[in-house]
Amino acid sequence: MIGCDQFRNGLEKSLNHNPSPGLSEEMRLHLSSCKSCGAYYASSIALHRALLEIPKEQMSPGLTARLKSIGRLPEPQPVRLSWMPELKRGALLLGPAVAMIAAYWLPPITGTITQFVVLIGGLTLLVSNILKPAFIGHQ
User: Fold this and answer.
1) What does the alpha-carbon distance between residue 2 and residue 6 come to, in Å, rounded to a whole number?
2) Which of 36, 40, 51 has the alpha carbon at shortest distance from 11?
3) What's the CA gap between 32 and 45, in Å, rounded?
4) CB 23 within 8 Å of CB 2
5) What is the pLDDT of residues 45-62, one digit of tens each?
6) Is the Cβ–Cβ distance between 101 and 121 less than 8 Å?
7) Longest dimension (CA), the chain
8) What is the pTM (predicted TM-score) of this model?
9) pLDDT tens-digit profile of 98-107?
10) Cβ atoms of 97 and 106 closer than 8 Å
11) E strand or H helix at 125
Protein backbone atom coordinates (compact mmCIF):
# COMPACT_ATOMS: atom_id res chain seq x y z
CA MET A 1 0.00 0.00 0.00
CA ILE A 2 1.23 3.51 -0.83
CA GLY A 3 1.47 6.47 1.58
CA CYS A 4 -0.06 9.93 1.34
CA ASP A 5 3.09 11.49 -0.18
CA GLN A 6 3.28 8.83 -2.88
CA PHE A 7 -0.43 9.25 -3.62
CA ARG A 8 -0.13 13.03 -3.97
CA ASN A 9 2.99 12.77 -6.16
CA GLY A 10 1.28 10.18 -8.36
CA LEU A 11 -1.83 12.35 -8.63
CA GLU A 12 0.26 15.38 -9.64
CA LYS A 13 2.05 13.39 -12.33
CA SER A 14 -1.25 12.02 -13.58
CA LEU A 15 -2.87 15.48 -13.74
CA ASN A 16 0.14 17.06 -15.42
CA HIS A 17 0.50 14.48 -18.17
CA ASN A 18 -3.08 13.37 -18.91
CA PRO A 19 -6.05 15.54 -19.83
CA SER A 20 -8.37 12.94 -18.25
CA PRO A 21 -6.40 11.46 -15.36
CA GLY A 22 -6.97 7.95 -14.16
CA LEU A 23 -5.91 6.33 -10.91
CA SER A 24 -3.96 3.13 -10.52
CA GLU A 25 -5.32 0.32 -8.36
CA GLU A 26 -2.96 1.20 -5.49
CA MET A 27 -4.02 4.85 -5.65
CA ARG A 28 -7.74 3.92 -5.58
CA LEU A 29 -7.15 1.64 -2.63
CA HIS A 30 -5.35 4.42 -0.72
CA LEU A 31 -8.05 6.94 -1.69
CA SER A 32 -10.78 4.73 -0.23
CA SER A 33 -8.95 4.44 3.10
CA CYS A 34 -7.60 8.01 3.61
CA LYS A 35 -9.95 10.96 4.19
CA SER A 36 -7.29 13.68 3.82
CA CYS A 37 -6.22 12.32 0.43
CA GLY A 38 -9.90 12.09 -0.56
CA ALA A 39 -10.31 15.82 0.09
CA TYR A 40 -7.00 16.54 -1.68
CA TYR A 41 -8.13 14.46 -4.66
CA ALA A 42 -11.50 16.24 -4.88
CA SER A 43 -9.93 19.70 -4.76
CA SER A 44 -7.22 18.73 -7.26
CA ILE A 45 -9.75 17.35 -9.75
CA ALA A 46 -11.95 20.48 -9.34
CA LEU A 47 -8.94 22.73 -9.97
CA HIS A 48 -7.87 20.60 -12.95
CA ARG A 49 -11.33 20.84 -14.54
CA ALA A 50 -11.49 24.59 -13.92
CA LEU A 51 -8.11 25.09 -15.56
CA LEU A 52 -9.17 23.05 -18.58
CA GLU A 53 -12.18 25.33 -19.08
CA ILE A 54 -10.07 28.50 -19.34
CA PRO A 55 -10.06 29.62 -22.98
CA LYS A 56 -6.69 29.61 -24.63
CA GLU A 57 -5.62 32.87 -26.20
CA GLN A 58 -3.21 33.13 -29.09
CA MET A 59 -0.31 35.52 -28.68
CA SER A 60 0.59 37.93 -31.42
CA PRO A 61 3.54 36.85 -33.59
CA GLY A 62 5.52 39.93 -32.50
CA LEU A 63 5.13 39.09 -28.82
CA THR A 64 6.03 35.47 -29.45
CA ALA A 65 9.21 36.52 -31.26
CA ARG A 66 10.16 38.93 -28.45
CA LEU A 67 9.64 36.28 -25.78
CA LYS A 68 11.68 33.76 -27.72
CA SER A 69 14.52 36.23 -28.19
CA ILE A 70 14.68 36.97 -24.45
CA GLY A 71 15.51 33.37 -23.61
CA ARG A 72 18.35 33.04 -26.10
CA LEU A 73 21.86 32.98 -24.75
CA PRO A 74 24.76 34.26 -26.79
CA GLU A 75 26.68 31.66 -28.73
CA PRO A 76 29.63 30.39 -26.74
CA GLN A 77 32.94 31.49 -28.18
CA PRO A 78 35.47 28.76 -28.85
CA VAL A 79 38.38 28.71 -26.46
CA ARG A 80 41.62 29.65 -28.16
CA LEU A 81 44.71 28.16 -26.68
CA SER A 82 47.58 30.46 -27.49
CA TRP A 83 50.87 31.54 -26.03
CA MET A 84 50.62 34.92 -27.74
CA PRO A 85 49.34 36.90 -24.70
CA GLU A 86 52.11 35.45 -22.54
CA LEU A 87 54.71 36.26 -25.21
CA LYS A 88 53.45 39.84 -25.46
CA ARG A 89 53.50 40.21 -21.69
CA GLY A 90 57.02 38.80 -21.55
CA ALA A 91 58.18 41.18 -24.29
CA LEU A 92 56.65 44.13 -22.41
CA LEU A 93 58.36 43.10 -19.21
CA LEU A 94 61.75 42.43 -20.86
CA GLY A 95 61.62 45.52 -23.10
CA PRO A 96 62.74 47.99 -20.44
CA ALA A 97 65.60 45.75 -19.34
CA VAL A 98 66.79 45.38 -22.94
CA ALA A 99 66.53 49.14 -23.46
CA MET A 100 68.53 49.87 -20.32
CA ILE A 101 71.22 47.36 -21.27
CA ALA A 102 71.32 48.90 -24.76
CA ALA A 103 71.67 52.35 -23.18
CA TYR A 104 74.68 51.10 -21.21
CA TRP A 105 76.44 49.57 -24.26
CA LEU A 106 75.52 52.21 -26.87
CA PRO A 107 77.64 55.20 -25.70
CA PRO A 108 80.85 53.96 -27.26
CA ILE A 109 78.99 53.47 -30.53
CA THR A 110 76.70 56.49 -30.93
CA GLY A 111 77.12 58.95 -28.09
CA THR A 112 75.37 60.33 -25.05
CA ILE A 113 72.21 61.65 -26.73
CA THR A 114 71.29 58.17 -27.96
CA GLN A 115 72.09 56.77 -24.53
CA PHE A 116 69.81 59.37 -22.89
CA VAL A 117 66.91 58.69 -25.33
CA VAL A 118 67.14 54.92 -24.93
CA LEU A 119 67.40 55.22 -21.15
CA ILE A 120 64.33 57.49 -20.96
CA GLY A 121 62.44 55.09 -23.27
CA GLY A 122 63.39 52.13 -21.09
CA LEU A 123 62.36 53.89 -17.91
CA THR A 124 59.07 54.93 -19.53
CA LEU A 125 58.34 51.33 -20.51
CA LEU A 126 59.27 50.12 -17.05
CA VAL A 127 57.06 52.65 -15.26
CA SER A 128 54.15 52.10 -17.66
CA ASN A 129 54.34 48.32 -17.13
CA ILE A 130 54.36 48.77 -13.36
CA LEU A 131 51.49 51.28 -13.31
CA LYS A 132 49.37 49.77 -16.10
CA PRO A 133 47.49 47.27 -13.86
CA ALA A 134 46.63 50.05 -11.39
CA PHE A 135 45.04 52.31 -14.02
CA ILE A 136 43.89 49.99 -16.80
CA GLY A 137 43.32 46.70 -14.96
CA HIS A 138 44.65 43.25 -15.64
CA GLN A 139 44.15 42.06 -19.20
Assistant:
1) 6
2) 40
3) 16
4) no
5) 888 888 888 888 888 888
6) no
7) 107
8) 0.41
9) 777 776 776 6
10) no
11) helix 112-135
